[in-house]
């Protein structure tokens, strides 16, 4: 097996699940280092990689990348032969970036406010980047309803990130399970790479509990 260029820092019960899936879609060798939340994630050694003391993070050929959406976009660009992003000159490149970062920004902000039970006065919504949760969810529904994937028939890193977020938020009841969301997540989670990542996470979680 060729040497790994990617070291991946994870915890099986965290948002790092997104990157497990992305790495399986990539199909390149990688080393996974599992960290516990209050121990290894807070050591000086790991804080030198991610001062936030959180996962996921990767080190690729010595370059540190944190934040799930950034990692997905970075890996897709590092391995263009894997076709996990539209080419730079593709008219779909904007669509790809748009929805990848829409979910990392406005959707997460809106869902977080809802999860914390923080109501937004109607006259204050203009102050927020996402406006209202209703507007965000309606926009997201359009994004996953127009074609098989975010970028038409091409599955991309945006689908890894968007699909993971929708699945997670529906699972925990903070995003209404609209038919378009359910159909999109069903398509995404049938992919062999997702199934492999799920098996990896389940095994790692079981090992942590021993």
Topology:
Blueprint: E1 6-10, H1 17-26, E2 30-34, H2 44-47, E3 57-60, E4 63-66, H3 68-78, H4 93-115, H5 133-143, H6 157-171, H7 179-189, H8 192-209
Parallel strand pairs: 1-2
Antiparallel strand pairs: 1-3, 3-4
Helix pairs in contact: 1-3, 1-6, 1-8, 3-6, 4-5, 4-6, 6-7
Distance between the termini: 30 Å
Instruction: List SSEs in N-to-C order.
Output: EHEHEEHHHHHH
CATH architecture of the largest domain: Up-down Bundle
- The CATH class of the largest domain is Mainly Alpha
Q: Low-confidence spans: pLDDT under 50, at least 5 residues?
A: none
* Helix share bin: 40-55%
What structural category characterises the helix and strand content? alpha+beta
Q: Overall pLDDT, averaged?
A: 93
- Return the CATH topology of the largest domain: Glutathione S-transferase Yfyf (Class Pi), Chain A, domain 2
Integer count of domains: 2
Sheet with the most strands: spatial strand order: 2-1-3-4
Question: How many strands, what sense, and barrel or not for the largest sheet?
Answer: 4 strands, mixed
Number of helices: 8
Proportion of β residues?
5-15%
Backbone CA Rg: 17 Å
Number of strands: 4
Task: Name the shape in a single word.
Answer: globular
């Amino acid at each position: 097996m060729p040497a790994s260029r990617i070291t991946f820092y994870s915890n099986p019960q965290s948002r790092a699940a997104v990157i497990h899936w992305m790495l399986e879609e990539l199909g390149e060798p990688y080393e996974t280092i599992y960290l516990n939340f209050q121990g290894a994630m807070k050591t000086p050694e790991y804080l030198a990689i991610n001062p936030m003391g959180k996962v996921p993070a990767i080190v690729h050929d010595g370059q540190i990348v944190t934040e799930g959406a950034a990692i997905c976009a970075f890996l897709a660009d590092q391995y263009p032969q894997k076709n996990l992003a539209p080419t730079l000159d593709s008219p779909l490149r904007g669509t790809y970036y748009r929805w990848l970062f829409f979910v990392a920004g406005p959707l997460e902000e809106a869902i977080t406010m809802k999860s914390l039970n923080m109501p937004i006065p109607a006259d204050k919504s203009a102050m927020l980047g996402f406006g209202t949760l209703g507007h965000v969810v309606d926009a997201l529904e359009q994004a996953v309803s127009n074609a098989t994937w975010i970028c038409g028939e091409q599955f991309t890193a945006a689908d890894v990130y968007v699909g993971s977020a929708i699945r997670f938020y529906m699972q925990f009841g903070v995003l209404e399970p609209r038919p378009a969301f359910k159909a999109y997540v069903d398509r995404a989670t049938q992919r062999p790479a997702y199934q492999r990542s799920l098996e990896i996470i389940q095994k790692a979680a079981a090992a942590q509990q021993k």
